[in-house]
Amino acid sequence: MIQQRANFDWMLKDLADGVPGIEMIVVLSADGLRIARHGGDPDAADRVAAACAGLQSLAGAVAHEIPDSDGKMKLVIIEINRGYFYLMAAGPNAYLAVLSDTFAEPGLMSNRMRDLVDRIGPHLTSPPRRNGQTV
Length: 135
Description:
With about 140 residues, the chain is of the alpha+beta class. It has a single domain (about 5-125), classed as 2-Layer Sandwich (Beta-Lactamase). The protein is about 40% helix and about 30% strand. It contains 3 helices and 7 strands, in the order H-E-E-H-E-E-E-H-E-E. A hairpin with a 2-residue loop joins strand 3 and strand 4 (about 85-90). Helix 1 runs antiparallel to helix 3 (about 105-120). The chain is globular, with a radius of gyration of 14 Å. It starts with a helix and ends with a strand.
């Protein structure tokens, strides 16, 4: 679990400040629980986290169809009307999701997300759970 939450929050803010157009950043566990967020309201962040659980599972299933792939999802980008959605593997059982408007440049966004994950990936870890309890 993330130990120094205040330090982690400023890192999410740093990403938001570094890429114009970010609406919301969500860090989530593989089972769709919100770990942290920046921007947006908590209920919206919870909905995004829940939806991401299904999306990362789907992306992993597709990745298994690529010859010689390890089946692990690294990055999903979805262009939507008036914005983009990004989902990146961020650590064991953890993901980084970003919603942005159309002014956010996808190449810059994915590079900044990757930089953030490289810097703090070990802190973006969510232990597996069984019956709602950490294993």
